[in-house]
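Supplementary Note 3. Input sequence used for the single-chain structure prediction.
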Amino acid sequence: MPQNEPDPALLAAMRLCYQPIINLADGRTDHAEVLLRSAGADGELHGPEDFLSIMSSHGLALPFTLAIMRRALAEYHAYRFSAANLPLAFNLPLDAMLHPELGQEIISLCNATGIAPSRIRFELTETTPVEDFTAAAASIISLHQAGHHIALDDVSPGMPYLTALMSLPVSAIKFSNTLVASTDALPFIRATTALAAAHRLHIIAEGIETQAQLAAMQKAGVTHGQGYLFSHPLPASTLGHTLHSAA
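The predicted structure, written as discrete structure tokens, is reproduced below.
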């Protein structure tokens, strides 16, 4: 296990939500993104900002990522996501992705939970831009060989090594809600979607809130959508009920 561990009080405040990602061709849930939330003293759920700050400033990216995965995979079994063959997508900070213990830790998690690697996906977050392409490529290839799907998250103009990263064994790219909400970003979305389609990648648009945004993304060639138009982030119990009701 990584030497540093998160503060138990922080872990006690950690809550998870799950936001479905929809295949726009058939309207079905393709997979769900695991989202980190914090339970406040007021009983309300708050954003992950405090967690993210500690993760980046205290070298805890991998331990926090593993803690999130352990919690999510426990809920996966408790709420029978497996009955719907639902893959989960976890945000993977660059520091965690490049950690030498990442691969073995994930193998141990899969073995302990009995969950197939193909049901565990990773979204490479752009909180820290890729600077060492060789190291990033080696990690992406290793995760792919272990059976995981990888998405490039928050794809944006000026993203380092974007074209080269799309040539690696990744399965999807994601446009942020900021880009989806900006009509000025449509030329970039169209050009990047065409490049991604040439690599046979799925193209996911986050933050779709209106029918007009959905129509614009479909016209641009986006294949999958995520956002309030389809579903708010859900607690595990609600998602489990939704999945089983639709079965």
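The mean pLDDT is 91. The domain at 8-246 is CATH 3.20.20.450 (TIM Barrel).
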